């Protein structure tokens, strides 16, 4: 995947990893770009279009892809956290139908491309000798910014004590003080992480790579839908004895258990709005999931979409992820607009969707972002009654450590 991304064959690309499979989507055959108030589309054989939209942004995307003049398609891209804002601003989504697609499963690659010459170039690249190894990382110091972050946690706790909401995720941005090799960072970071999904993308000059700890929404062509809320966090990777101790803390801490339980209940309620009655259920409740430098309490919530419902309805119901926004969501999102600066892709989603109704989306956390020569990281902590600024700041450090040690500078 890194060899394809770094080859220079494609200006735009998305790499998306699911269990036992990688997909590389290169170039642009079709494109949908959603900004606040405007949706722009490009399709083969059709003049590029731009029109205003209103209502829910997911409906604007649904309509744009329904009009695609293609008998079959797969699309890849991202949606921003502000996709869920009551008054959205900035870029909300960027999705492409690729010119070329490479799927790797079981050690075998399958190449599909609209241009046979491009397919041949890709095949040669895949068959060729491996390039040089990725550069050496330059670890980014995560223990900065406490003075700005802790007062915002205290403000959120005061809001919760006043009954304004039950939970909110307060995040902090960490600027990287040097230009970054995003592709090499993906290789280094993936080798050190155990994500539910991973991704690497460059769309319109915006680059990002990350190691998502949880699935936001996965819908198959038959309408089976699953989400995987993770909430409750402790450090991981300090050695067997230390990891066992923090695991026991995680499984018995009332604050962590409450944070997880209310997140699972919210996911159940959200899926129940779009699924057949009685089909929503929880499996693997409060199982510990090891994700790089942290371990989480995790559960899976699944169901079957009701007749007339689609993957877009599931995405609308579940977005933004409860574990990256809060409870109740409307009040938490409003608080985030006060407590955080605009998030963009952080706590949004990278997704893959298809003409047959399937959709798979990763919650964007543990990621690096790069645009206009500036790179940054971001992490947050779930604030509930009983949270303390010191512990929540420490949690952001633990999460940032999933990627901060693996950032590779440009040579």
From TrEMBL:
A GO biological-process term: L-tryptophan biosynthetic process
Cofactor requirements of the protein: Mg(2+)
InterPro entries for this protein: ADC_synthase, Anth_synth_I-like, Chorismate_C, Salicylate_synthase
Keywords: Lyase, Magnesium, Metal-binding
Coiled-coil region: none
SUPFAM superfamilies listed in its UniProt record: ADC synthase (SSF56322)
A Pfam family it matches: Chorismate_bind
A GO molecular function held by the record: isochorismate synthase activity
Domain (Chorismate-utilising enzyme C-terminal): residue spans on this chain: 148-399
UniProt-recorded name of the protein: Salicylate synthase
């Amino acid at each position: 995947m890194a060899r394809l991304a770094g080859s220079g064959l494609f200006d735009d690309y998305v790499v998306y990893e699911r269990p036992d499979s990688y997909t590389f989507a290169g170039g642009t055959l079709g494109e949908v770009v959603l900004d606040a108030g405007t949706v722009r589309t490009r399709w083969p054989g059709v003049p590029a279009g731009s029109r205003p939209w209103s209502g829910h942004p997911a409906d604007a995307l649904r309509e744009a892809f329904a009009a695609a003049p293609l008998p079959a398609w797969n699309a890849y891209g991202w949606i921003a956290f502000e996709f869920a804002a009551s008054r959205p601003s900035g870029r909300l989504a960027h999705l492409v139908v690729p010119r070329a697609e490479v799927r790797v499963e079981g050690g075998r690659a399958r190449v599909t491309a609209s241009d046979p010459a491009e397919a041949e170039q890709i095949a040669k690249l895949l068959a060729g000798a491996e390039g040089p190894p990725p550069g050496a990382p330059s670890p980014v110091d995560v223990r900065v910014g406490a003075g700005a972050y802790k007062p915002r946690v205290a403000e959120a706790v005061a809001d919760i004590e006043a009954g304004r909401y039950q939970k909110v995720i307060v995040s902090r941005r960490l600027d990287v003080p040097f230009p970054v090799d995003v592709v090499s960072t993906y290789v280094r970071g993936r080798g050190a992480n155990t994500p539910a999904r991973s991704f690497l993308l460059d769309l319109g000059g915006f680059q990002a790579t990350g190691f998502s700890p949880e699935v936001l929404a996965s819908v198959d062509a038959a309408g089976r839908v699953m989400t995987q809320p993770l909430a409750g966090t402790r450090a991981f990777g300090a050695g067997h004895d230390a990891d066992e101790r923090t695991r026991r803390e995680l499984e018995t801490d009332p604050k962590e258990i409450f944070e997880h339980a209310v997140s699972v209940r919210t996911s159940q309620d959200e899926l129940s709005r779009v699924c057949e009655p009685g089909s929503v259920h929880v499996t693997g409740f409060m199982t510990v999931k090891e994700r790089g430098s942290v371990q989480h309490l995790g559960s899976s919530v699944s169901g079957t979409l009701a007749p007339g419902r689609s993957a877009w309805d599931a995405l609308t119901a579940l977005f933004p992820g409860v574990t990256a926004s809060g409870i109740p969501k409307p009040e938490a999102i409003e608080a985030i607009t006060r407590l955080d600066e605009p998030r963009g892709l952080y706590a949004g989603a990278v997704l893959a969707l298809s003409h047959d109704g399937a959709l798979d989306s990763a919650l964007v956390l543990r990621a690096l972002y790069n645009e206009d020569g500036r790179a940054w990281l971001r992490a947050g902590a779930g604030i509930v009654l009983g949270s303390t600024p010191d512990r929540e700041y420490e949690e952001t450090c633990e999460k940032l450590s999933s990627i901060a040690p693996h950032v590779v500078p440009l040579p």
